[in-house]
Design brief:
Number of strands: 2
Strand content: under 5%
CATH architecture of one domain: Orthogonal Bundle
Largest sheet: 2 strands, antiparallel
Distance between the termini: 146 Å
Number of helices: 10
CATH class of one domain: Mainly Alpha
CATH topology of one domain: Cytochrome Bc1 Complex, Chain D, domain 2
Oligomer: single chain
Shape: elongated
């Protein structure tokens, strides 16, 4: 006996077809091949690029300063920079003397038979030209300090320290370890540097000859 009621599956057929079409449409979109061609750049984007380029150029021109290290310094035009004051020679000399402590020791007494003392040394407190010549070109071989003979090498400092640094360490040593002597100026070291030139390390005799040229 046939029922007069319609088949439920028949009533759902349109709904199922819509769902199937929707599923297939999504799959077809994923499988579609890309097309060749160029999409035109939106005019709005081009206008924005032009606007920001013009604005950036104006900003750099108006606030870029003079393209120097002080161009953005608000106080740069107020006054010329003040030259720094010369460094305290005793402080600078103490700093440079750190390179000497391995040989001459922190107390300036040296090492017996190896490195001569700087305390109470005529080479230190005496002729400043001779002292500067030793530091600039070094000394090698036998020489006598405070009645004791030494045979060691003092390296040349002329290529490692400038005139101000050498004058400062001379001033420091001449006024440390119980020494009391006049400070040494940068000009003295500069003059001795020009005088001795590129001579090799001094010997005791050649240093004496140099000191005698006053």
């Amino acid at each position: 006996m046939k029922s007069d009621q319609p088949n439920p599956e028949f009533r759902r057929a349109p709904e199922l077809q819509d769902r199937i079409l929707e599923m297939h449409s999504a799959a077809m979109r994923e499988m579609s091949e890309p097309r060749d061609g160029i999409r035109p750049t939106p005019v709005t984007f081009l206008i924005l690029c032009f606007f920001f380029t013009m604005w950036g150029g104006y900003y750099i021109g108006a606030y870029g300063g003079d393209w120097t290290g002080t161009g953005m310094n608000e106080k740069a035009g107020a006054a010329a920079p003040v030259a720094s004051a010369p460094q305290n020679p005793m402080a600078l000399g103490a700093e440079v003397y750190n390179a000497c402590t391995q040989c001459h020791q922190a107390d300036g007494k040296g090492l017996a038979g190896q490195f001569p003392p700087l305390a109470a040394s005529e080479y230190v407190t005496g002729d400043e030209r001779r002292f500067a010549a030793i530091l600039l070109n070094g000394i090698n071989g036998d020489f006598v300090v405070n009645g004791q003979k030494y045979n060691s090498q003092m390296p040349a400092w002329k290529d490692n320290y400038n005139d101000e640094e050498i004058a400062a360490v001379m001033t420091y040593v001449r006024n440390s370890f119980g020494n009391k002597a006049a400070p040494v100026s940068k000009q003295v070291v500069e003059a001795v540097r020009k005088e001795v030139g590129a001579n090799g390390p001094w010997s005791e005799s050649s240093l004496a000859e140099f000191a005698a040229k006053k």
